[in-house]
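Researcher: Let's do a round of design. I'm pasting the structure tokens now; please hold your answer until I've finished.
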């Protein structure tokens, strides 16, 4: 797992967010995910380990600092450094953390203690109180670190802070359950109900996700269903109908958010030397969004389109 010696791996802690639950929120992004969604706009969140992002456009000529810091994993034979990512050790990542003068090379992932995370969360309590906001755990998949998630939620609740989690629910139930007593709102992805398509586009099991949804609904967990609409995967009327039917008929959901696909995260794949396997143009079908909202309304749900 991604924690060691009492440290946990974050890849961001975003203050003043208004997109990840009600009011103004601090969003704690934990590294590590069990899915590999082709369209993932945060590919740096998937691995539980620290990673190097390299932006060749920002690299300075005549500079060899990164190669000097990690000579066995970074070559500098030409104008740009060549990174052998498989050879990077934890010590190399420590060496590289503040090495690059131009931010061309950035180490993503910062080990923090629970106390450090909570100190950052508590700092903005006056904003939460005034706006009806709070803290949101996101990722990656926050339930993948069950003890950390439950502890952060419990300590936030004890401090009078509203708690939310953004999850893909692709984890064993025993990872979710410890958090439920400290959770005010779950924002959960319902990507598809078709097992074959889910497997093909995410490398995961739809059944695991749907089973968790059913158990959460049976527990009466306050939930917002979120549906990313991805061309060629689920951005068609039949898939939207199936997903909405499941949310309404099997879960009794009251609120559903449709998230049109965008490609703002593609550049991160270049920075990580990863191939991008989803469409390279965004969702361009306003009729589908109208249909989705109308159909969800017919099923008794409040529907929103979110960015
Ligand atoms: S579940 Fe979210 S973080 Fe994980 S791969 Fe899919 S889109 Fe990325
Ligand atoms: S330290 Fe930064 S600017 Fe210098 S060679 Fe490495 S990536 Fe380029």
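Researcher: That's everything. Go ahead.
Model: Designed sequence:
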């Amino acid at each position: 797992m991604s924690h060691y010696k009492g440290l946990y791996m974050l890849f961001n802690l975003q203050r003043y967010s208004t997109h990840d639950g009600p009011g103004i929120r601090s969003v704690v992004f934990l590294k590590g995910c069990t899915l590999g969604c082709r369209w993932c706009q945060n590919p740096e969140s998937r691995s539980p380990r620290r990673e190097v992002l390299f932006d060749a456009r920002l690299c300075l000529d005549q500079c060899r600092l990164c190669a000097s810091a990690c000579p066995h994993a970074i070559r500098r034979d030409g104008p740009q450094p060549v990174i052998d990512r498989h050879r990077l050790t934890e010590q190399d990542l420590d060496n590289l953390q503040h090495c690059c003068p131009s931010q061309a090379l950035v180490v993503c992932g910062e080990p923090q203690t629970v106390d450090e995370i909570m100190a950052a969360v508590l700092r903005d309590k006056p904003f939460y109180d005034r706006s009806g906001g709070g803290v949101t755990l996101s990722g990656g998949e926050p339930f993948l670190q069950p003890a950390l998630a439950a502890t952060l939620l419990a300590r936030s609740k004890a401090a009078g802070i509203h708690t939310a989690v953004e999850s893909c629910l692709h984890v064993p139930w025993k990872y979710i359950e410890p958090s439920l007593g400290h959770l005010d709102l779950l924002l959960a992805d319902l990507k598809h109900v078709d097992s074959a398509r889910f497997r093909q586009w995410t490398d995961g099991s739809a059944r695991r996700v749907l089973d968790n949804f059913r158990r959460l609904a049976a527990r009466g967990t306050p939930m917002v269903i979120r549906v990313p609409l991805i061309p060629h995967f689920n951005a068609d009327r039949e898939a939207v109908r199936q997903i909405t039917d499941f949310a309404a008929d099997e879960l009794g959901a009251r609120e559903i958010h449709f998230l049109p696909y965008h490609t703002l995260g593609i550049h991160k794949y270049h920075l990580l030397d990863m191939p991008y396997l989803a469409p390279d143009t965004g969702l361009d079908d306003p009729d589908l969004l109208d249909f989705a909202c109308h159909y969800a309304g017919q099923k008794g749900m409040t529907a929103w389109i979110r960015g």
